[in-house]
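Q: Given only this backbone (312 positions), what sequence would you predict?
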């Protein structure tokens, strides 16, 4: 059954940080789409991503590249389950590495091609990250403009993600990130703490990753989106494949303008669905605009709610 015409639906895809041991277990036991994509991922990667997602160990799942591959796979499983039952998005977007899931949801490539791009991008970023001791941190309780000013004063650190109007992620050299956190606490931040990541993502320190990833995608079989994909960097509605490739590469070292993206998409849609594990996106949406309706699909009950809400 097709969803009701009045429901304009956005699929939003989580990125690294949404993973947890046991994610996908309910789907694996209930939906053939889950077993099919898990088996495909295991064959393509040469190790059991299925075991890692369902059983852990947690520290291995939380390694940057493993987490990115795992979240992408779960998100694609949820996408297939919904699309196979008549739920299609009117627009998609993703949070950081969740953008690859968004491109999959918009029909830009098949699961295998997307998994390879996720792996390539992750490996390039980790390689660039080895060239400098970098990290990321969260600053809570200050405005984005205040955090931007702190980064300029601390030097060698940049605003990486504008999560909510009062929560900002910064990225840069370890010493600079530490200076920025200290300044933020002195200026009234409610909290400032480092993230457990292996590279200073979304910062100028990994800028070389842009050209490297774009070069690897030159011969990739990527299609123009079937529905618009919104960039978290440019905030554009992308509808052409060459533009999509450039955006996917550029976004690696540029900021995630998440607050602006949610406000933009929220103005044009009636329902957002968080397609994948965790509830990071749902929490940020709540802090950005409590008037936006969002359903997360971390558990099968949420997936069923999303399908029922869309008339299936």
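A: Predicted residues:
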């Amino acid at each position: 059954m097709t969803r009701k015409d009045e429901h304009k639906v956005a699929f939003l895809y989580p990125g690294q940080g949404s993973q947890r041991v046991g994610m996908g277990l309910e789907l694996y036991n209930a939906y053939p789409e889950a077993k099919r994509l898990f088996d495909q991922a295991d064959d393509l990667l040469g190790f059991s991503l299925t075991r890692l997602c369902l059983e852990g160990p947690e520290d291995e799942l939380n390694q940057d590249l493993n987490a990115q591959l795992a979240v992408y796979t779960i998100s694609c499983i949820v996408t297939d389950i919904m699309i196979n039952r008549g739920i299609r998005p009117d627009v998609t977007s993703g949070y950081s590495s969740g953008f690859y899931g968004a491109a999959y949801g918009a029909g830009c490539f098949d699961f295998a091609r997307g998994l390879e791009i996720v792996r390539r991008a992750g490996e390039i970023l980790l390689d660039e990250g080895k060239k400098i001791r970098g990290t990321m941190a969260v600053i809570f309780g200050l405005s984005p403009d205040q955090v931007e000013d702190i980064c300029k004063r601390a030097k060698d650190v940049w605003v990486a993600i504008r999560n909510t109007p009062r929560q900002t992620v910064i990225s840069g050299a370890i010493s600079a990130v530490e200076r920025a956190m200290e300044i933020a606490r002195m200026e009234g931040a409610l909290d400032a703490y480092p993230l457990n990541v292996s590279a200073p993502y979304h910062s100028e320190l990994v800028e070389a990753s842009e050209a490297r990833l774009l070069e690897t995608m030159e011969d990739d079989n990527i299609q123009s989106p079937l529905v618009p994909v919104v960039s978290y960097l440019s905030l554009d509605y992308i509808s052409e494949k060459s533009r999509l490739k450039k955006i996917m590469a550029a976004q690696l070292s540029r900021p995630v303008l998440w607050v602006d993206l949610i406000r933009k998409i929220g103005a044009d849609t009636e329902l957002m669905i968080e397609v994948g594990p965790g509830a990071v996106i749902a929490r940020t949406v709540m802090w950005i605009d409590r008037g936006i309706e969002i359903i997360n699909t971390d558990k099968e009950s949420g997936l069923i709610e999303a399908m029922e809400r869309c008339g299936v």
